[in-house]
Amino acid sequence: MHRGLTIGDFSRITHLSVRTLRRYHEAGLLEPEEVDPYTGYRYYSTAQVPTAQVIRRFRELGMPLREIREVLATADPDARAALIGRHLARLEDELDRTRAAVTSLRRLLEPAVPPIEVELRVEPTTTVAAVRATIDLKEANAWYGGAMEEIDRALHTAGLTPSGPPGGLYGNELFTEERGDAVVFVPVADPPAAGRVHPFVIPAAELAVTVHRGPHDDIDVSYGALGTYVTEHTLAVAGPVRENYLVGPRDTDNPDAWRTEIGWPVFRTTG
Amino acid sequence: MHRGLTIGDFSRITHLSVRTLRRYHEAGLLEPEEVDPYTGYRYYSTAQVPTAQVIRRFRELGMPLREIREVLATADPDARAALIGRHLARLEDELDRTRAAVTSLRRLLEPAVPPIEVELRVEPTTTVAAVRATIDLKEANAWYGGAMEEIDRALHTAGLTPSGPPGGLYGNELFTEERGDAVVFVPVADPPAAGRVHPFVIPAAELAVTVHRGPHDDIDVSYGALGTYVTEHTLAVAGPVRENYLVGPRDTDNPDAWRTEIGWPVFRTTG
DNA sequence: GTCAGGGCTCCCCCAGGGGGAGGGTCAAAG
DNA sequence: CTTTGACCCTCCCCCTGGGGGAGCCCTGAC
């Protein structure tokens, strides 16, 4: 009786290991053309070779088996392209993160890392034009851009001039739960209301403040310095973190020139 | 009693999860400054924050914990740079593979994939100047370049002209075990011997032959077509695979113009 | 009929975590 | 000084995408 290729033959043709082929069978990714009901032997057909090779490519791209199965099950070319595009976008993201980590690592390992200076300062109440939302940490950058644009438009429409650099308030849970409240604002004496933009009052507070220099890839280092300062001075953190974009993407295209003031509201403990 | 930061405090400062910190402790990557022998409570110091951040960067680069520990334990800056450089090289490799997979995937998913033509042909005995070695599949490309260069020099020194395009012989175990015998050769009437270069006779054989067009990123597709052809014509493979580089990197910088002839020595089975 | 090579299932292992159970501790508030 | 709630501990199972190996059955060429 002439059956298809044994799993070993198929393995040699596709360069997928026998184990991997069995796993793909189990996962419903690549069902053998025929399975002998008595012996359990898997038999593949030569027509399945191209499918196996497509799977191999997707795996080389790190696509999870679930998604590969989804892609293969999707007949509609548009939907298929969308699934693939989504994964390619993820790859891009990952690449960006890798790039950021490389540059930031280089900076961290440089012998002459200047110590980060932290100072304690009392900030008065400020009125601002703000947009607030609950966001995921991942989408923070995109959200920030849109919100800032909207505030700019609102100020422009109202003919108002900012009284200081833009900034943001970030709830601490954003950093522990990857999701939380965020406010982006521009200080202005008499804030307008338009669309998502609303007047907002930032309360006075005692702040532990430092200035982060350069792109935000390694901003956690400055956060770490603040953490060190706060604990060493037996202070505690109260309320959302403040960032002031002294020099930011609106001012220069060179991220190395960016200056970000980070302020942690603190209070003294009996420690 | 004033002890260091609890694991929760340290987690908030470094943005590493509590679980992850415990794992790093267990792995000897980041030992807490103090561990209470009675309660098992871990206490960290603010001086450990920078270390934690360096670890975070390495992890974002996908460096295994073992290697991070190694890097942190290495005091000598040169040795340290070497370790890091090795990992960055691996990242580059991975990036190349990803790029290759993307282009190859695009090709595979293009609607108009021309069917691959396979023909059966008898190849006569050929004398060649060859370099042979047992290699890993991964290092095949680098090895190939060096060997080919050596053959070129030997022919040039001896004042000989190749009688055909260069080629290679690859034992089947190379593709199943990732390691095996390989021969790279240039056909020539009267082969010289110099260094690793030796005369060699490629035996006559009946070949199933196809021509692969373009870069080698998706050469396994052509191999798959050969596999399909061979099994559908109830043939069997005997001996190492042959590749002839009709148009290769020596001829053009445009990989899309490459032409690689792949020949599988076959014999008829009773099927 | 024999026998090697190859197929089958099942279980354990890896990294680098996440989730949760069950129980002990710490520190601020009453 | 006790309570209480937040925090910490260990231990176990889960995930993905495989690899290694044990123990047993099947196939096919001679």
Automatic annotation (TrEMBL), chains A, B:
<dbReference type="InterPro" id="IPR000551">
    <property type="entry name" value="MerR-type_HTH_dom"/>
</dbReference>
<dbReference type="InterPro" id="IPR010499">
    <property type="entry name" value="AraC_E-bd"/>
</dbReference>
<dbReference type="InterPro" id="IPR029442">
    <property type="entry name" value="GyrI-like"/>
</dbReference>
<feature type="domain" description="HTH merR-type">
    <location>
        <begin position="4"/>
        <end position="74"/>
    </location>
</feature>
<dbReference type="InterPro" id="IPR047057">
    <property type="entry name" value="MerR_fam"/>
</dbReference>
<dbReference type="GO" id="GO:0003700">
    <property type="term" value="F:DNA-binding transcription factor activity"/>
</dbReference>
<dbReference type="Pfam" id="PF06445">
    <property type="entry name" value="GyrI-like"/>
</dbReference>
<protein>
    <submittedName>
        <fullName>DNA-binding transcriptional regulator, MerR family</fullName>
    </submittedName>
</protein>
<dbReference type="InterPro" id="IPR011256">
    <property type="entry name" value="Reg_factor_effector_dom_sf"/>
</dbReference>
<dbReference type="InterPro" id="IPR009061">
    <property type="entry name" value="DNA-bd_dom_put_sf"/>
</dbReference>
<keyword id="KW-0238">DNA-binding</keyword>
<dbReference type="Pfam" id="PF13411">
    <property type="entry name" value="MerR_1"/>
</dbReference>
<dbReference type="GO" id="GO:0003677">
    <property type="term" value="F:DNA binding"/>
</dbReference>
